[in-house]
From TrEMBL:
GO terms for molecular function: NAD binding; oxidoreductase activity, acting on the CH-CH group of donors, NAD or NADP as acceptor; oxidoreductase activity, acting on the CH-OH group of donors, NAD or NADP as acceptor. Keywords: NAD, Oxidoreductase. The keyword Nucleotidyltransferase does not apply. Residues 315-413 form the UDP-glucose/GDP-mannose dehydrogenase C-terminal domain. NCBIfam families: NDP-sugDHase. One of its GO terms (biological process) is polysaccharide biosynthetic process. This is Nucleotide sugar dehydrogenase. InterPro entries: 6-PGluconate_DH-like_C_sf, NAD(P)-bd_dom_sf, UDP-Glc/GDP-Man, UDP-Glc/GDP-Man_DH_C, UDP-Glc/GDP-Man_DH_C_sf, UDP-Glc/GDP-Man_DH_dimer, UDP-Glc/GDP-Man_DH_N, UDP_ManNAc/GlcNAc_DH. Belongs to the UDP-glucose/GDP-mannose dehydrogenase family. Gene3D superfamilies: NAD(P)-binding Rossmann-like Domain (3.40.50.720). Signal peptide: none annotated.
Length: 420
């Protein structure tokens, strides 16, 4: 079967390569000509995918294209394009519907289409199916439509595309059977569920579970702080419970393009059904308020030293949304920088993975990452550890900086280190 993967990002590219490595003819589709060109020349643009892997699979028959007309040759179409939020924090399916619209003229009976992008329950049935039926295709008879959420964890050596169980829901039983046959070629375990809605909801539960539990430990951190209790010691002690406790760590807030976003896909759809998801929404409020907490704790620590935030030189350590990644989407560091600047602080940032401050929808500061040397550290009134990249030299930071605000429990203890 000739496989086509649409969207060659951190989800689509590993999936396309895995199919090619399993011996399938694979065509990768992306609207970004630079991605297409890089792949066809054996280069990788994802830090966790080595160029050798791209080169080997291109030699094995994988190729990339931007020409959607080539879809006519495909037996299976897998869509892995982004599902972000709109300005009004509502689902933005434009990449998904745009891809399907582009595909429509090139579809033919006998093909299967699988949506992998995270989305609200009902998308496959209510949005994709009607689009496909405009081409006179009869789903389950001469065309197969399924939903199978992605669970890629970039760089995770233990859980790869092949070893992560893959949930799959079909519009009809025949669609599900086609989906199982398709994915069993590239993953060890396919988990069939009774409908595409079930599969869509499964993914949302997985990620909302994380969001609300992170919100819980963030709120517990604030309570513990007021009580003079070290929340990290509490969590480590609670984690000794051998069953029924999953460890989450408090932090400066929720970043990334999944965990802060996915709850909105559910709550938006729930509201359409007249259901109020105040528990999930409250956890979002707690997580979104964490940057305020970090700024408040910074102000308190500077005040202790007779320094107002206004006019202070502050160094932000880490701009990416979590350690050892270069992605800064929804990163709490951005919100913290914006608040500190608004209060009159002079702010620099240092992040070995993020050389320049990314263009953002809401903010754009013309900042470059500064290199850390022991000498330069003494020029700052305070440094805030927002993202605990492994590259940072935590001993030097603690020894050379007047005041440190630690949001990740990663710095050595010291009189000059305050938790936030
Ligand atoms: N975070 C905390 N405390 C935690 C865990 C995370 O504050 O205990 C913060 C992180 O700093 C980050 C945000 O939450 O800002 C999200 O972190 P994440 O570890 O959930 O990482 P993501 O955003 O890369 O989530 C992805 C998800 N994968 C998919 O959607 C396929 C998620 O389902 C995975 O569980 C997660 O990776 C993972 O475990 O690496």
């Amino acid at each position: 079967a000739h496989i086509g993967v649409f969207g060659l990002g951190y989800v689509g590219l590993p999936l396309a390569l895995a199919f090619a490595e399993a011996g399938y003819p694979v065509t990768g589709f992306d609207i970004d000509p630079e991605k297409v060109d890089a792949l066809n020349h054996g280069r990788s643009y994802l830090s966790h995918i080595p160029p050798t892997r791209v080169r080997d699979t291109t030699q094995a028959g994988f190729r990339a294209t931007a020409d959607v007309a080539e879809a006519i040759n495909l037996d299976a179409i897998i869509i892995c394009v982004p599902t972000p939020l709109s300005r009004h924090r509502e689902p933005d399916l434009s990449f998904v519907t745009g891809t399907v619209q582009d595909l429509l003229p090139h579809l033919k009976p006998g093909q299967a289409l699988s949506l992998e992008s995270t989305t609200y329950p009902g998308t496959t049935e209510e949005v994709l199916q009607p689009l496909l039926e405009t081409r006179g295709l009869t789903i389950g008879d001469d065309f197969f439509l399924l939903y199978s959420p992605e669970r890629e964890d970039p760089g995770n050596a233990q859980f790869t595309t092949r070893t992560i169980p893959k949930v799959c829901g079909g519009t009809t039983t025949a669609c599900l059977e086609v989906g199982q046959a398709l994915y069993s070629g590239v993953v060890d375990t396919v988990v069939p569920v009774s409908s595409t809605k079930t599969a869509e909801m499964t993914k949302l539960l997985e990620n909302i579970y994380r969001a609300v539990n992170i919100g819980l430990v963030n709120e517990m951190k604030i309570v513990a702080d007021k009580m003079g209790i070290n929340i990290h010691e509490v969590i480590d002690a609670a984690a000794t419970k051998p069953f029924g406790f999953t460890k989450f760590t408090p932090g400066p807030g929720l970043g990334g393009h999944c965990i802060p976003i996915d709850p909105y896909y559910l709550t938006w759809k729930a509201r359409e059904h007249g259901i109020n998801t105040h528990f999930i929404e409250l956890s979002g409020e707690v997580n979104r308020a964490m940057p305020d907490w970090v700024v408040q704790k910074t102000a308190d620590a500077l005040n202790e030293r007779g320094k107002p935030i206004k006019g202070s030189k502050i160094l932000i350590l880490g701009l990416a949304y979590k350690k050892n990644v270069s992605d800064s989407r929804e990163s709490p560091a951005v919100e913290i920088i914006a608040q500190l600047k608004a209060k009159g602080a002079m702010v620099d940032y240092s992040d070995p993975h993020v050389p320049t401050f990314p263009k953002k929808r809401d903010y754009h500061f013309d900042m470059q990452s500064v290199d850390i040397t022991p000498e330069m550290l003494s020029h700052y009134d305070c440094a805030i550890l927002v993202t605990d990249h492994d590259e940072f030299d935590y001993e030097t930071l603690q020894a050379q900086t007047k005041l440190l605000i630690d949001t990740r429990n990663r710095l050595p203890k010291g009189q000059n280190v305050s938790q936030a």
